[in-house]
Amino acid sequence: MLEVTDLRTYFHTRAGIVRAVDGVSFSVEKGQTIGIVGESGCGKSVTCYSLLGLIPTPPGRIEGGRAMLGEEDLLSASEATMRKIRGKRISMIFQDPMTSLNPYLRISTQLIEPLLIHERMEKKTALHRAIEALEEVGIPDASERIRSYPHEFSGGMRQRVMIAMALITKPEILIADEPTTALDVTVQKQILDLIKTRQQTLGTAVIFITHDLAVVSNVCDHVYVMYAGKVVESAPTTDLFSAPEHPYTRALQRSIPAIQEKGEPLYTIEGLPPDLTKPMDGCHFAPRCEFATEECQTVAPTLQSAGEHHETSCTRRQRGEIDLIH
Amino acid sequence: MLRVENLCTHFHSKGKTIRAVDGVSLSVDRGEILGLVGESGCGKSTLSRTIMQLIPPTSGKIFLEDRDLSGLTPKEIRRERLNFQMVFQDPYASLNPRMTVFSALAEALRRRHPNLAKDDLSREVGTLMEKVGLAARFMKKYPHEFSGGQRQRIAIARALAPEPRLIIADEPVSALDVSIQSQIINLLMNLVRELDLTMLFISHDLSVVHYIADRIAVMQQGRLVEIGSADQVMHEPEHDYTKTLLEAIPRVAEHI
Amino acid sequence: MTDPVINPSGKLLLRPEDIEQGTSLWKDAWHRLRKNRMAVASLIILILITVLSIFGPMVMPYEYQDQNQGLGATPPLQAGAHLFGTDELGRDLLTRTLHGGRVSLGVGLIATLTALIIGVTYGAVSGYLGGRTDVVMMRIVDILYAIPFTIFVIVLMSVFDRDIKLLFLAIGAVEWLTMARIVRAQVLSLSKQEFVEAALSLGLHRVTIIFRYLIPNVLGPVIVYTTLTIPAVMLFESILSFLGLGVQAPMSSWGSLIKDGSEKMDVYPWLLLFPAMFFSATLFCLNFLGDGLRDALDPKSSKD
User: Is B91 domain-assigned?
Assistant: First the structure.
């Protein structure tokens, strides 16, 4: 349904060109949930903002690639076309719902707005639909609560409102950018469950952006792991966790305290992610990789198949030189 | 080492009383790491700041090595504070952006040793930086020139500088990326062992707390609902709230 | 530090030449400001105007009050060294404009400085102490705000003897209110920052915290506001002079020169043109510089 190929988004800053997203490809099908995982600065959010034409230009610029939503290339579409797509065919929810809700407007006004704009609905019908939407995301007394202002909701409830708003036009794709990071664990679980059930009812495709591997393992069908602007591994979720094919993925999994035995030192990835203003020849992860050879530092790797629907960019793993399971 | 007896911290706002901390009693033994878990608004941050004497308690007593902190004059408290230091959540907010690493650490060192000569100071600052895994040659740099993880290391070094006996770490890793988080957890655990410190480790993340702490206390709405050994709380929780918390943690393990 | 630093264990810790010097936020801001061509040009023009105003009258062959009856109202470049021409009384306009610059810039600087000192201290104390003290201190500011400020200064100027020093102080005494509010809001949010809590945990004294932790961090917005206050003050001085309440003849300020010039602008347009040029150039430059400083000092608002 959405097919992104070789997306490149660079930021032209005073310090130099930041290659925030450097040749990223992925696709998502109807009803599918994909995860884009990585640490801060890996380019996962920039990827999705690029799709929606929300990159501040300058300093940002989309340097290349295509993102086909059906027949439409999102990267070359006009602003007028994008306005029709955003909020109608692709919706987005964010980490902090407060930043995307207008604090001075009632929830009702904000909920019916996409219906009035995109569906040209009558105000009364739209309001009726909005109350339904709130009920669907589990807000009690929806017909009363719809008249409240954003600050009158708790963090979890606000995120529910955001989900209702994002899904009210029945979009084909929902982009969720760290939607549960700011929430408590108990609330996080409820929100994740809610996204899942709503998705099943509506058949929406979901792109889940997060740094949290545990969240990914619970909600995604397929996962793309990003590091320093590139996808380093792409795999069905089960395979990614049972048989990672990239040293970075494996290292990330091992750094989670939950998996570790208590008492032994926690597995760590030494060092820091690279400075993206400096062009790098080899694998971006090589400086921190325990398996890296001289070749890894100098020869740029490419994503290659490592099983069914499974791809890795690790050259040594592609040749079967290293074992990542034990 | 640290003993808190029936501690209450209440706030008054718009005629309502908010019982942020409501009758908490706990003790931490020398060399122990006590994990304090709870969701946002449960009062864990207020508790840590009350123990730190940054917020005055409404009632109750705090003992550090059997010395009652509640009876001290402000001047004595300022002196006593060196014995317990705090590591904060946000490494971008916890360092003064206008001070170099050197001046921040030197200031903290001088609190304990006011008469340190200038040469000795740079030696001490350098040693301290190496201890937390930073190269000493960066001592003249400013906080904004470091990454989040490195800043957290600077903040830890500052907390260690006055040679405290108790460290209160308030969500020290929750603002950091996974790969950096594990570096900082290891650093904290090594330091506690090496320097014979006692630590109160506060987090919303039960799996991190289980990994690092000897005992875990679970806090809900200003009260402690459960306290026990890390394994017991994690694997055989008694209180319903602890069980809810545990069930909510998304686990990767299901797939393996 | 000149000697290598050695660990107690004898291991070489670091050599002084290895130490990497950091870039402070001030240095960073200065680099950003230098990249801003408008701001740099404004700064240069301002320095030029200031230097001319200070030293110009000293080297000019005329004094600002010297009258030359024979050369009344000479247009520019027509007689002798009267580059800008003369006014009706035959006084050299260039000298009077430069002298007017002294007064106008002086009013701007001194009044702003007064506002700065009172405002920063008042705001910092109010914001840091907080609680009831803060409430009382800020209500006082609110009350002072409510006094119609133009009328206040006008009354002051007419009751007392139109003393120019009094003018400086009167304007400054009113302008500090906004400064106090700005500083107080900044300090209030800063003192909740974790680095202030960390400083308290170290047992540092309150005075140290105010001077080492709070003031350096509010200086950015204060500098920006200061640069924008100077033109506001100068404008106010010119209004007072225009109303005949400011500087008294034979002394001149840009405001009083513009007033005189505007009365005769049909016949002797240069009398309005030159002082107005200097005055508006200064105002423009101060505003551009202020904008540049705001971008430079607050990296979040700049585009990178």
Answer: yes
